[in-house]
Each structure stands twice: as C-alpha cells, then as structure tokens.
Design brief:
Blueprint: H1 2-28, H2 55-67, E1 116-117, E2 120-121, H3 148-151, E3 195-198, E4 223-238, E5 243-258, E6 264-269, E7 273-274, E8 277-278, E9 280-284, E10 287-291, E11 300-306, H4 307-315, E12 324-334, E13 340-356, E14 361-373, E15 386-397, E16 400-411, E17 419-430, E18 434-444, E19 458-466, E20 474-484, E21 522-532, E22 539-549, E23 562-572, E24 577-588, E25 594-604
Antiparallel strand pairs: 1-2, 3-4, 4-5, 4-25, 5-6, 5-9, 6-11, 7-8, 9-10, 11-12, 12-13, 13-14, 14-15, 15-16, 16-17, 17-18, 18-19, 19-20, 20-21, 21-22, 22-23, 23-24, 24-25
C-alpha cells in the first residue's frame, strides 16, 4: 500500500513538472496565433468524422502539406492563417529545383517587414513560370502574425513545437500546373493481376467510394483479383534409381474476393498437379511418357476476417478488440516452414499486438489452431489419419525475435501414433556481423500399438548469415543441423531440412534430386554464398553441403554419408518473366550418386 502511495505521489510530481515546463516553453516562443481545432475530412464520402484534431496534430498535417509547397530554390514558406479551402490546391506550381528540407530559420529583415514570415521570405522575383512564358503574380504581402496577446487565446493552451498553419487561400488554383511536378517522370512497368475488378491492387487515381450496408464502421469495399504464375521446366534427373529427362508444367491460380478492409474469401487452384505430382513428359532413352495430373478441385478455400470488426459492424460502433481468424482449408507456415508447411482443413484465431511489462516483451502475438484433416506427415499413413490442436507464439523480446509452438497430433486410427510436437527458436544479430537463428524441435509421447515409433526425435538447427562489407549483394551463410531419432514437422511433405540449403530443397516441379532432408539420425550442414547483382538484377547461389549418419538405426533414411555441390542462377527477363537454372551433384556412401540439372521459365501475373 505504501509503495503504491509513493508511486502515485511521484507520478503527480512528474506530471506537474512536465506541465510547468510546457507552459514556460509556450511563453518563451515567438508570438504566433493559435488555430482552432480543425475537423477531419469525410471518410469515403459516406459519413463525416466527429473526431477533432488538436493544434499539434493539425499542424503536423499541414506541415506535411507545407513541405511540398516551396516556390523555388529559396527556402520559402507561405503565409499562414487557415487551411486550404475545399477543392483548392495547397501546392504552388514550380519548375525550379528546390533545396533540401527543412530550411534554416531566417532572421527578420528590417527592410522588408511586410513580407516576413517566421522561417523565410517570399522573393517576388523568383516565382513559378508557366511553360507558355507567363509569370504568375507573387502573393500579396501579408503582415506578420499578430502577437499571442492580440489573439485573445491563452498563452498556455498549446505547447506545440510547430508553427501555425499556412494560408493558401489567396493563390489561384491551376489544375494543369498542378501536374508539372510529374514532368519527365515515368511509371515503372509492373505486371498487373490477370483479373482485376473493383478497387483492384494499387490502381492509380482516387479510390472508389465504399458501400454502406447499414454499418458506418465496417464498409464494403469489393475487389476481385485473379493472379498467380505459370512454371515450365526441362530437367535432367538422376535420383540414383532412375535416370531420365523431364519436361514439367505447373499453373498456380489464386482467387481473392475482398469484401471489407479486414474480410476476404480466398481460393487456390493448381489444375496441372495432383498430390505433389505435376503434369509432365518423361524421356527415358528412346521412350517418353505423358503423365497427366489434372485436378479439378481447389487446393485451398478459406475465409478470413476480424471478429472484432465484424461484431462492431453489426452494432454500428467502432471495434473494441482485434481478433483475426481464418476458417477453411488454408496454408499454414510456422518457423520459416520448418515446423509447419502444409495446407490443412482447420480454424485459427489470433490475439495480436500485445505486450508484457512483467516478462519484458515489447510485442507478441498468440495464434491458436485446430486441424481437422489433411495433415501431410510421415508419422501417419494417410493425411486423414490424425487431427491436431495447438498454438504458436511470436515474441519480440530480449534483443531478438522468438517463435514458439506446441501441437498435439491426435491419431484417429487407434494405432497409438498420437504424440506431442514442440518448437522453439530465437533470432538476433550479434556484433553487427552475424544474423543467427537457433531452432529446436522436439517430438515426444508416442506409444504405438505395434511397429516402430514414427515421431520420436529431436532436431537442432543453427542458421547463420554473415553481414559482409557489401551486405545487400554478398551474403555468405553457414547452416548446421543435428537430428536425433526420427523428428517430424507437424505437417510438411518436404522434410525438416527444406530451408537448410539448396542441396536439401527440391524444386516442387520436376522431381529434382536432393540430399536426405529428414534429419533422421544425421548431422551436417550447408556452406554457401548468395550473390545479388547490382540493382538486384540477378542472383547466383553457390553451395557445398554434407550429411553424416549417426547410430545404427536400420530404419534410417540415409544409408551412409552424403555430400553435394550445387548452384542456382536466376535472372528476370522483364517485370513478368523470370529464368532460373539449377545444377547439383551428390555423392552418397552405400547408395548410388545423385545428379540434376534444370532450366525453368516462370511467368508471373
């Protein structure tokens, strides 16, 4: 009780001291008129805001307008007494280059008192010139602002460090001249979505007005997009058991129906692939086979939104909470795709943007999920054999970034394959030279009725990127791992070592060979360098990888030690087309060697 009383007493003293300092500062500043609070403009033309801005907020807004209204190379500021009238332009056309902002304060000149303003002067000889040679007349001289005492406004009412709002009402508005600031500038060409209806994706011009269906707090802003990419690749593949040529194709289509600012319906469809097999032609000697893998079903279909905004919209009030959620079949990716990388039928709810003073967490999110079907995992025979329940946490604390996750995989077949899956990672930068991530995945609690355990291991993964003297274009990296037993991700068809190096990563298209990505009783790593061309115009990755076996587990995936050299090069043809090339060779003890080379053309739309 005594401690709380002292705390309140100290806080009261601190507030009084701050207020006294603020009032003293206001009296010490140069005399300047204070504007009345200004009202915010209507939102989407549907309703007007009833929120009023303070002097400080209003002056910040007008200072931003003011930054772009300099007349010429001189540091000039226009008179200030009111905000621009509706429909008028706050900008003065100019074809003369301007100096850097902000300008240095200019002392008052005794010879030009009528054109003097707090931070600069208007030079009548240096004004904007139109292309036709006409010269716009300079603004009429305006006297200096009245002293604070003459405004009738208490001197201590505002402690704003900003100058009063400028007045542009006397300047003529020329819509043609307002476009001169864009003269000589061109838009960078970018690829647009295949279908773009409604508000679209960052379209130029004004946003169309939202639709009010009875709720002013959750307006309808419809937009429908279709986008994705088409990938076609030719490859030579030698996976140790078979040597063949492959020409494979993949089409990814995303359908995005946006309803409001927080709600949307999304679907993904890959018509040329089924169960991670892609439509392709295989060449084996003089024989070739056409493998058709057409699929008419959507791969994902889900709805996501914010429950706080939806409920507030029904009551026509502003939301009291943020509670985003998603339901349906959707992709889940946690721990950079190492712990979870799969599309599952599930429901998730997130508690976002919290902090904890006790734990010294500046920001954290918590996500809770329940998985009903489609868990792709080697721990189960079928993707419908288990359900999953768990949570994931994302925490900014202790000079770094923490990810933690827990999932209980509930076997539905009665074979006793249920188990607990935990993950923890910590990422931070050391000595301004190394970006480091440490990840740990632990499987425990599985007790099968018959046969061996399928999820009974641990993985330690250490990822390092060196911050070189040219960090944007030269990125050396060293990733190390150690697997004990048979560790599993919650759900992933790609293996735990998917992102350890390019020699552990398949291309998801041609069946490109890799070293064993399961981390089943193995340890090793990948050493490489990521080189980006000037202006990020191309990318080259060179890598050496190794994998060493441990123990004598007869069920281990890798029969012996493995080594590989690999490279990847990709370069954009333009803003829509990309060429990528890969090559690797792998040496394996007690197994046939691996080899692969491929070239891919990708069109993004």
């Amino acid at each position: 009780m005594l401690h709380r009383w002292h705390s309140r007493y100290l806080r009261t003293l601190a507030l009084l001291a701050a207020l006294a300092t603020c009032v003293a500062t206001a009296f010490a500043q140069s005399p300047a008129p204070l504007l009345n609070p200004s009202r915010l403009p209507p939102v989407d033309g549907i309703f007007s805001s009833s929120i009023y801005t303070s002097d400080a907020a209003g002056r910040v807004r007008n200072r931003q307008l003011f930054d772009t209204s300099r007349l010429s190379g001189q540091n000039t500021i226009l008179p200030q007494s009111a905000v621009p009238a509706p429909g008028s332009s706050p900008f003065v056309p100019s074809r003369v280059a301007v100096d850097d902002w902000p300008p240095s304060p200019t002392p008052p000149s005794p010879t030009t008192p009528d054109t003097m303003f707090p931070y600069g002067t208007i030079d009548p000889l240096r004004v904007a010139t139109r292309p036709d040679g006409d010269v716009q007349k300079p603004p009429s001289p305006t006297k200096s602002p009245a002293p604070r005492e003459e405004t009738g406004q208490p001197a201590g009412e505002s402690c704003s460090p900003f100058i009063p709002d400028p007045d542009y009402g006397h300047l003529p508005y020329d819509p043609e001249a307002a476009t001169w600031v864009y003269e000589g500038k061109l838009c960078n060409p970018t690829q647009r979505p295949l279908v773009e209806w409604g508000r679209g994706l960052y379209l130029p011009g004004e946003l169309p007005p939202a639709i009010n269906l009875g709720s002013d707090t959750n307006l309808i802003m419809p937009s429908f997009l279709v986008f994705g990419d088409f990938r076609t690749a030719a490859a030579y593949v030698d996976n140790g058991n078979r040597e063949l040529g492959v020409w494979a194709n993949r089409l990814n289509l995303d359908f995005d129906l946006r309803l409001t600012g927080t709600e949307r319906l999304h679907a993904f469809w890959g018509p040329l692939d089924k169960a991670n097999r892609f439509t392709r032609v295989e060449f084996d000697g003089d024989r070739f086979d056409l493998r058709e893998e057409f699929d008419k079903d959507f791969d994902t279909l889900f709805f996501e939104g914010d429950l706080g905004y939806i409920m507030a919209g029904f009551d026509n009030r502003f939301p009291a909470i943020d509670l985003p959620f998603v339901i349906g079949k959707y992709p889940m990716l946690y721990q950079n795709g190492i712990w979870f990388f799969d599309a599952v039928e599930a429901v998730s709810v997130t508690i976002p943007a919290k902090n904890s003073r006790i734990l010294d967490w500046s920001n954290y999110d918590l996500t809770f999920f329940a998985i009903l079907e489609d868990i792709d995992s080697p721990a189960f025979a079928s993707d419908n054999d288990a359900r999953g329940y768990g949570m994931a946490a994302f925490i900014e604390a202790y000079n770094g970034y923490i990810e933690a996750g827990y999932a209980f995989l509930d076997d539905q077949t009665g074979q006793g394959l249920s188990y607990h899956n935990l993950a923890l990672s910590y990422t931070r930068r050391y000595w301004h030279r190394v970006s480091n991530s440490i990840r740990v995945i632990v499987n425990a609690g599985q007790d099968p009725v018959a046969g061996p355990q399928t999820a009974d291991g641990q993985l330690l993964l250490v990822e390092n990127a060196l911050i070189s003297s040219n960090p944007n274009f030269v990125v050396p990296y060293l990733n190390l791992f150690a697997g004990f037993g048979r560790p599993q991700a919650v759900a992933s068809p790609f293996g735990l070592l998917l992102n350890t190096g390019i020699n552990f990563e398949s291309d998801g298209l041609t069946g490109y060979p890799t070293l064993d990505p399961t981390a089943n009783d193995t340890w090793g790593g990948a050493l490489g360098v990521n080189l980006l061309g000037a202006g990020f115009t191309n990318q080259l990755i060179l890598e050496a990888a190794m994998l060493q076996t441990r123990g004598n587990d007869p069920n281990r995936n890798a029969k012996g030690d493995q080594y590989a050299l690999g490279m990847r090069y990709q370069i954009p043809i333009n803003w829509a087309w990309l060429v990528r090339m890969d090559a690797m060779y792998g040496w394996r003890d007690d197994e046939a060697d691996l080899a692969g080379a491929r070239m891919e053309l990708r069109w993004k739309f």
